[in-house]
Structures are given as C-alpha cells and as structure tokens.
Amino acid sequence: MLYYLRNIKSTVQQTADAIAAALKIEVEIADADLIRVAGTGKYKSQCGCPMDDGFVYRHVMKTGVPVIIDNPGFNELCQPCPCRGNCMEYAEVAIPIRIEDQIIGVIGLVSFDEEQTQRLMDNKQSLLLFLEKMADLLVGKATEIQQNHDRDILTSQLVTVLNLLHDGILLVNDQQKVTHYNTLAAKLLDIDAQEEQALYHLLDNKNLWLAVERGETFSGNIQGKRVATQLYCDVVPIKKDGIIEGAVITLRDLQQIKKLVKAATVNDIETHFSQIVGNSKKMKDLKAMALHVAPSKATLLIQGESGTGKELLARAIHQSSKRKGHAFIAINCGAIPENLLESELFGYEEGSFTGAKRGGKLGKFELAHNGTLFLDEIGDMPLHLQVKILRVLQERRVERIGSTRSIPVDVRVIAATHRDLDNMVITGEFREDLYYRLNVIPLTIPPLRERLEDVPILTKFYLDYYSVVTDRSVSGITSETIEILSRYTWPGNVRELGNVIEYCVTMVAGGMITSDTLPKRIKTEHKPEMIDSSLNLKVLERETIMKALTLVDVNGHKEDAAKLLGISRASLYRKIKEYEIGENRTFS
C-alpha cells in the first residue's frame, strides 16, 4: 500500500500546531518526497514546496533513525548545504514517520535561539518519545484513510461485478432489511432506490425465511410482490459464530431460463418433413399421417428399428405443431444410467441426495414446458420410472426429487422405441397402462430393406450432404453401385446408408464412386440359406429352452437359463408354460 501524508493534510497541520504549542518551537513535517506538508512560524507559508535543503531529513528517510543536531552548519550531514557555516538554525531534531517497513515522512523541530535550543537539549529522551507518539497519531490517521480508500475501491469493484451478473442479488440482514442489491435485482423486484426495503415487501418470503432461521439453504420458485414475474430463488444464510446474521439471495427470471433453453434446443435444429427423404408408398403414408397428427395435443409413439430416423420424425412433428416456438427436449432413456435418469427427467431440490448441486436442478419436463419432450428408447426405461411417467401424463404435474410439491407442466410427449412393446407388456417388462397411454397414435417407420426403392434418392441426398460437410466433392456414382446399394438389406437402416456414403465420399475425394469404393461388407453380403420347410420353429424353440435348462444346472435354475437364452425371466416362464416344459422336472 502507498500511504500519503498529503491525503490527511489538515490532520498533519493540526499535529504540527499542537507540537509547536506544547514545545514552543517551530515544527515542519515533510512527506516521503520531501514536500513540506505542514509547518509553523516561518515554515507555514512554505507548505506544499519541496525541501531542496532537506539533507538531514533525506538522511532520516534513508536510515529510519532519529537525528539530533546541536551544531547546524557544521555537522557532517550539513556538508552539502550551501548555507554550511552560516546557518540560521541553532538546533534540529528529526524523527521518521513509519508504517511497518515503510517510511512515509519526517517530523522536524528547529530552534532559532538559545532558549529553544536549551529546551531541546535538556529533554532529548522525553522529546523523542513525545514525537514518536505524534508520529503514531499520523500513522493511525493515514492508515485509516488508506483502508477506507481501499475499501471504497473494493466496494466499487464488487458492485461492478454484481451488476455484471446474470442473476439478481439481494443481501439482507437478520431483520430482513435489504442492505445491498444489484441492478438486475432492482429490475426484477421493482425496487425503489429512495426507500428502505424490507424482504417481505419484495418477495413471498415465508418459506424462504423459515429456512434461513434454521440455518438452511433454500431453492425454489417464488413470487414477487410488486411484479407478476415468477422467479427462481437460491438463498444461503450468513452465519457468524453460529448466529444467523442475514442471507444472500440470488434471483433468476424463470421465463428467461426457459428462453435460454429454447435458444439452445430449437433455433439451430429445426427439422421439417421435407428433410425426411423417401418417395416410397410406405414413407408417403407415414409422412401424411405424421403431418395430420402434428397439430394435435395427442401423445405419440414412434416405433422402428435403430437407424430409421425416429428422432428426425419427432422433430418434424414438433416443428409442424403449435409448440414449434418452444423447446424440443430429447432424452435417450437407454443411454443414461438408471440412477441418473430420474433426476434428468424430473429434476431435484438442493440437498436431496449426496452430490446434488447447489440450487437443485430443473428436470427435462420443466424445461420442455409448452414444448415437446422426446423420450427415445422408452422400452429401456425401468419399471419404477414408468409409473412416474404415467402419473405425469395423467396429472400434467411433476414432482422433483426431494420435493413435496408438484409443479404444473404443459408438455407434449413423443416416445420412441426399437423394441417390441407388445411382447414386453406380455412378459411384464413394460407397464400395460403406460403402453396404452403412450400408444394413442402409433407411427411405425419401416426399415430401409422394406423400402429399397428409396435408396437411390437417399444416396443422392447423402452425396450432396457429405460433399459439403467433408469438403470433398465427387463427380458422381455409377449405376452398378446404385444397384448394389439397392440390393443390400441394410441392417443399420438409413444411418448405415449415410455412413457408407460418407465413407465413399471421403475415399474417392473428387472421383467417381464405383463398386470398388464400397465397403467390403456391402458387396459380400451373405444371402440366407434356404431352410427346410419341414422344420418347425416352435419345436426348435422348445428344444433350445430345454437344452438351456439342462446346461445351467441339473435342477434347472430358470434365472441362469434366461441369461443364457438372452431373454427375461418372465419371458422364460411364459415359454415354459406355453410349451409345457418341465412336467416331470423340478425348476427353481
């Protein structure tokens, strides 16, 4: 820190006058730059001027040691002075003004007659002690002024930072009086800067303040009293020695949060039915049905194999609905671990479980309010979450983890799966009530092998697309290659076709795509061998199940057998009953 005596000029002059009155001797006080800050007698008129002849003071500043001179003009410190040998002064005393290791100035006493000199010389020690006390007074005042200055700068910096935040900030004391707030808080709550503000005049604060009094944090929606805006609020109590001294409150506009979600999920990913490529009858019928039901509020279930474009269809439906101006939120129920899926869908309150982030979290249902929630791979959703999804669809309300209150939501749900939900309902792997609630309007996307006539148009679409994406244009594709692509059965569907075309565009780099460019698996696909029509599928299935039961254990443990067969335990029970297996065996 830099301490300046000039910042406390009036105090320095008052100190000089007090010393002069007490000792009846002339006083001058200089700062670290040897500028005379204060003086008495003949020196008073010279305040603000540099001390060109301050050789003694310069020495004191350099060494930090007090100096007493009883022979001015002849002392070795006076050697550089032009008045050496003809000095008007009789005696001189100088002591440093020190703040820790920093010397910020000098107090000087100067006598101009024998009487003043005698008083100086007779009371050296008590005089030095007195001057040290005076120096301490100046140090205390300089420190106070500097600290206040530093505090003002820090306060200004903090206010600037608070005003740059995208959250409203309130600081309240233990009496719920608002002590500080930033500009966004003033805007959100309509705060009048001319009036003293109490928290209960600004917010519906009952539950909020009960949490503060318990020393707990609070997070949740809250209503302003002067404005109609719904706010999301985080509150952290301020404690000192276990005593609540107030709280810090952050505020966010819920509508603004939802606008940010919309911007992140809608603007750059608009999908229209024109982007769903296909002229086959099945695809034309599918697009016509989807376009017809898009404006409705009905829940949709899209079924189709992996890679057929279920999410693409869902986005096109959303874009053609009345909800297109709001969020489209997609979540893959099969890609998220079961223990995280619930919190992703429904959100959670702060402190609801270990690792829950401060302020809690909005769930996908809340984020999709007024928009569309796409539940991909709904068939992989655990049974206990299926119950909660059903409740939301019926009641149109969600309840966060750790919360006791429900939140109304207006969300259109579009579910999708590649699994056979009819069979899963039979085996008990999927709730029947949820299945019928989702399957209000079923849409089935045919696999590519059932619409091979669309392969040429899809191929052209992907050629154009990947030429732009990879910046590697091609001169064309041979008819022979198109024929090979049109004969392939495409187990990976449209996604696989897109990957193959990307591979070809990358490999030829400006040339013509021929059959030699295609991946080896496309050209060497094995045709299924003809199976003896006399073989009965049910007989083979019964024999396989019996073999599995025999392999796992002599007693035939069903759970192990189900794992070996790759089916659920419930499916195995159903098959055993259907094929009347085990009438003479004991199964566990």
How is the topology of this model organized?
Layout (H helix, E strand, L loop, with lengths): L8 H15 L2 E6 L4 E4 L15 H9 L3 E3 L21 E9 L2 E10 L2 H9 L1 H41 L3 E6 L4 E4 L1 H7 L9 H4 L3 H8 L4 E6 L6 E11 L2 E11 H12 L15 H13 L6 E4 L6 H10 L8 E5 L5 H9 E2 L12 E2 L1 H4 L4 E5 L6 H13 L1 E2 L8 E2 L3 E6 L3 H7 L4 H7 L2 E4 L10 H16 L5 E2 L1 H9 L5 H16 L3 E2 L6 H4 L13 H16 L5 H8 L3 H10 L10
Description:
With 588 residues, the protein is α/β, with parallel strands linked by helices. A five-stranded antiparallel beta sheet has the order 2-1-5-4-3, with helices on both faces. A five-stranded antiparallel beta sheet has the order 7-6-10-9-8. A five-stranded parallel beta sheet has the order 12-15-18-11-19. Helix 1 runs antiparallel to helix 4, helix 16 packs across helix 18 and helix 21 crosses helix 22. The C terminus is likely disordered.
Structural class: alpha/beta
The Cα radius of gyration reads 43 Å
Strand arrangement, largest sheet?
Answer: 2-1-5-4-3
SS elements, strand count: 21
Helix fraction by DSSP (H/I, runs of at least 4): 40-55%
Major sheet attributes? 5 strands, antiparallel
What is the 3D form? Answer: elongated
Oligomer: single chain
- The pLDDT mean sits at 83
Given as residue ranges, the uncertain stretches (5+ residues, pLDDT < 50) are 264-268, 528-534, 583-588
- N-to-C span: 82 Å
Strand content: 15-25%
**Helix tally?**
22
